[in-house]
Amino acid sequence: MSNYIKIFNGNIITPAGVLKNGTLVIANGKIADISTKNIALENVLEIDAKGKYVSPGFIDMHVHGGGGHDFMDNTLEAFLTIAKTHTQYGTTALMPTTLSCEKEDLLTTLAIYEEADAVNREGADFIGIHIEGPYFAMSQKGAQDPRYIRNPDPAEYKEILAASKHIKRWSAAPELPGTIEFGQFLKQNKVLAAIAHTDAIYEEVVRAYVVGFNHATHFYSCMSGVSRRNAFRYAGVIESAYLLDGMTVEIIVDGVHLPAPLLKLIYKIKGAERTALITDAMRGAGMPEGKSILGSLKGGLEVIIEDGVAKLPDRTAFAGSVATADRLVRNMMTLADVPLLDAVKMASVTPAKILNIQDKKGELVKGKDADIVIFDEEISINTTIVKGNVVYRKDLVKI
Question: Binning pLDDT at 50, 70 and 90, where does residue 396 land?
Answer without folding.
Answer: low
